[in-house]
Amino acid sequence: xxxxxxxxxxxxxxxxxxxxxxxxxxxxxxxxxxxxxxxxxxxxxxxxxxxxxxxxxxxxxxxxxxxxxxxxxxxxxxxxxxxxxxxxxxxxxxxxxxxxxxxxxxxxxxxxxxxxxxxxxxxxxxxxxxxxxxxxxxxxxxxxxxxxxxxxxxxxxxxxxxxxxxxxxxxxxxxxxxxxxxxxxxxxxxxxxxxxxxxxxxxxxxxxxxxxxxxxxxxxxxxxxxxxxxxxxxxxxxxxxxxxxxxxxxxxxxxxxxxxxxxxxxxxxxxxxxxxxxxxxxxxxxxxxxxxxxxxxxxxxxxxxxxxxxxxxxxxxxxxxxxxxxxxxxxxxxxxxxxxxxxxxxxxxxxxxxxxxxxxxxxxxxxxxxxxxxxxxxxxxxxxxxxxxxxxxxxxxxxxxxxxxxxxxxxxxxxxxxxxxxxxxxxxxxxxxxxxxxxxxxxxxxxxxxxxxxxxxxxxxxxxxxxxxxxxxxxxxxxxxxxxxxxxxxxxxxxxxxxxxxxxxxxxxxxxxxxxxxx
Amino acid sequence: xxxxxxxxxxxxxxxxxxxxxxxxxxxxxxxxxxxxxxxxxxxxxxxxxxxxxxxxxxxxxxxxxxxxxxxxxxxxxxxxxxxxxxxxxxxxxxxxxxxxxxxxxxxxxxxxxxxxxxxxxxxxxxxxxxxxxxxxxxxxxxxxxxxxxxxxxxxxxxxxxxxxxxxxxxxxxxxxxxxxxxxxxxxxxxxxxxxxxxxxxxxxxxxxxxxxxxxxxxxxxxxxxxxxxxxxxxxxxxxxxxxxxxxxxxxxxxxxxxxxxxxxxxxxxxxxxxxxxxxxxxxxxxxxxxxxxxxxxxxxxxxxxxxxxxxxxxxx
Lengths: 519, 316
Description:
The structure holds two protein chains of two kinds.
Chain A: H1 2-23, E1 34-39, H2 54-63, E2 68-70, E3 77-79, E4 82-87, E5 93-98, H3 112-123, E6 138-145, E7 148-153, H4 160-163, H5 176-180, E8 193-199, E9 202-207, E10 226-231, H6 235-243, E11 249-251, H7 257-263, E12 269-275, E13 279-284, H8 294-303, H9 306-314, E14 318-320, H10 346-355, E15 362-368, H11 373-386, E16 391-395, H12 400-408, E17 414-419, H13 425-433, H14 447-458, H15 463-479, E18 482-495, E19 498-499, E20 516-517
Parallel strand pairs in A: 1-10, 1-11, 15-16, 15-17
Antiparallel strand pairs in A: 2-3, 4-5, 5-7, 6-7, 8-9, 9-10, 11-18, 12-18, 13-17, 13-18, 14-18, 19-20
Helix pairs in contact in A: 8-10, 9-11, 13-14, 14-15
Chain B: H1 2-30, H2 35-40, H3 47-56, H4 63-75, H5 89-124, H6 128-143, H7 146-160, H8 176-182, H9 184-209, H10 213-220, H11 225-253, H12 257-262, H13 268-277, H14 281-309
Helix pairs in contact in B: 1-14, 5-6, 5-9, 5-11, 6-9, 7-9, 9-11, 10-11, 11-14, 13-14
C-alpha cells in the first residue's frame, strides 16, 4: 500500500514538474512587436491635467509620468521621476530629488522647472483642470536646484504623496502648450510610449527609445515597439476580436465576469484578474424626503443583501464593500460582515420605516449610470431586495450627460454608480462625505464625520491616523452617507503569447511596458 | 428643362438644411446636460470652474446668439472643432464619411443583388410553395435585429470559420480586395433587412404588372418567358423598387449606428451617437447637416433615374 502511495506521489511530482517545464515561457523577454489592446470606450482627450474620461486616463500613464508611482501589486508608493524625498518635521515641506536620466519624448531632460511648471499649470484656473481641487493644499513650488524641487503646503496634509502618484498629475515640460499646440490631441511626456497616431477608432503609441526604465536584468524598457488601442464599442465583438486574434488583449469596461466566463475555456486565451479599488455604490440625496430621515436611510442599508448582489451580478467575483477597500490592509479595513447596518434585516427595516411615519413603505427613484454595464443590473437587484422591506423603487434610465448633470446638481433620490478608489483613505473618502467635500453631491452633513476626516488628513501617518480611520469606518456604516456595495474583480483577457502583463487594482496600463509577445 | 429642375431642387435644399439645423440645435439645448459638464466629469462639482468652461465654450450666451455664431462660421465654410476632443470637425468628417459611404454603397449593392432575383422568382413563379418560402424568408430577414445578425455573422465567419477578418478595414484604394473582404460582414448585416424589403417590393410589383395588357401582348408576340419578364415586366416594375432603394440609401448614408457599433466601424453613425452622448453640439450639427444633404441628394438622383426607367416621365 505504502509503495503504491510513494509511487503515486513520485509520478505526481514528475507530472507537475513536466507540466511546469511545458508551461515555462521562453526565459528572456523578446523585444519588438505591436501589442494590440481592445477597449470599449473612445479615447477622447490626452491632456493629462484636463482629461476625465476613464478611457483617456487609462492610456495616460503610457505617455506621462508622475513623481511617484504605485506598485501595481502591493499598492505601495514607489520612486518614479523622483528617486527619493523627505518631509519636514512640521509636515509642510516636501523635498523631491529627481532622476537625472529621464527625458521627454523630444529628447530634453526632465528637471525641477518642469515639476514646478506642472503643478502650477494644474493649479492655474486658466487650465480648467478638474485635478486642481486635489492639489488645493499646495502653497508654492520652489526649484532648489535643477534636480531638486520643494513643495510647500498651506497646512499639514498626510495624503499628499499619494496625490503625486497618478498619471493625471503627469509631469509636462515648461511651456507645454507652446510646444505641443493642443494638448488634447498632441502629447509630450516622459513615459515609456509616445503618441504616433490618434486616428478614428484607434490610437497608436510607439516606444520612447530613451526611456529610463530597465527590467531586473538591466534590459531597456519597454519591450514592445508599439501599442495600439482599438476601440470596439460592443462587448460581444470585443470578445470575438480577442478570440479571432485581431487584438492581443482586451481590458476595461465590458471585460467583466461575463467575458471571463465565456472565454475561460478557449485554449489560446488566458484570463487575468485583480480586485478593483473602485467600488459600486448606491448614492443617496440626504435633503430629499423621505431620505432626509436617518431611519429611512438605515432601513435602506438593512434591506440590501450585498452577498446576494455579488452572486447575481458578479457571479461571486467581488467583495462586499466597507468604506475602505480590503486591498488596503495597512488601513485596517473592517470586513463588511462586522460593520453595523450590514446584515440584512427586512423586518427591522420595515419597523424603522413605520417609526419614521411610513407604515405603508416609501417610494424612491433610482438612477443607474448608463456607461458601466453591470450598474443597471445592480439597480435591478437592489429594486428586488428593497421591495420586501417596504421600499418601492422606480428605476430611471437616463443618458450619460443627463446622469452627469443630475449628479452634479444633486437632482436624484438615489443613483447607482462606480466611484474610483484611492490608496489613501482621505482621498478615498473626504471629497465624497465631508460637508465641504468637492464631490459631496449627496448633501451629507455630519459633524462627527467631518471632525474625523479633518483630523485624518492633518495627522501624520502612523498608529493614530489608522485609529481615526477605524472610528470613521464605524461612523460611516452607522450614518450611511451612501451605501458602499462591492469591490468587484477586474478582468483582462490576453492571447497566450502575451507575457509579462499584470492587471492592477488602479487600472493602470503601465505594465504594458513590461509586456512582450512571444513569437 | 432638366437642368432647371435640378437647380430648383438644390435650392430647396437650403431651407431644409436651415430648418433641420435650428431644430437639432434647440433640441440639444432643451435636454439636460451640456458639454462643459461632460468635460469636467466626476472630479469635482466646483460651480466656478463650470462657469469658466461654459464661458470658454460660449455656452453662457443666449441660445440664439450661439446659433448665429455657429451659422456664421458654417457659412464661411468652417465646421468648427469638436468641443470634446478639440479636433477639427472637417477632419473628423473626412475620417468618418468614407467608412459610412462605402458601407452604404456596399450594402445597397448586396441588397439589390439578393433582392432582384429572389423577388423576381417569387413574383413570377407559379409554385405556391416557392412563393410562400420566399415570403417567409424575407419576413425573417426583415424581423431579425441587426445587432443579433451582426454578432452571429462575426461568431460564425470570423471566429469559427475564419473566412473573414473582424474589424480590419483597410482603405479601398490601398488594398481593394482586403477592403471588400473586411467590409463584407457589416455590409451583409445591413443588406439583409433591406434585401428582404426590396425583394418583397419587387415581388408585389411583378404580381401587379403580370396581367397588364402590354405583358399579354409581349407573350402573344411569342417572346420567351424570360425575355417577357426581363424586358417588359421587370423594367416597369422597378419604379417603386427604385424609390424604395433611394429611401434605403438615404438612411444608410446617415450611418447605421447599430452596425457601426457592432463592427467597430468609426463611421458617421458612431460619430453622431458619441456627439449626442458627449453633448458635442458642433459635431452633432455637422453630422446632421451632412446626412440631411446626402439624403436629399440621393432622392434627387432617384427622381432623375425614373426618366431612364419610364420614358413617359418628364420633369419640367
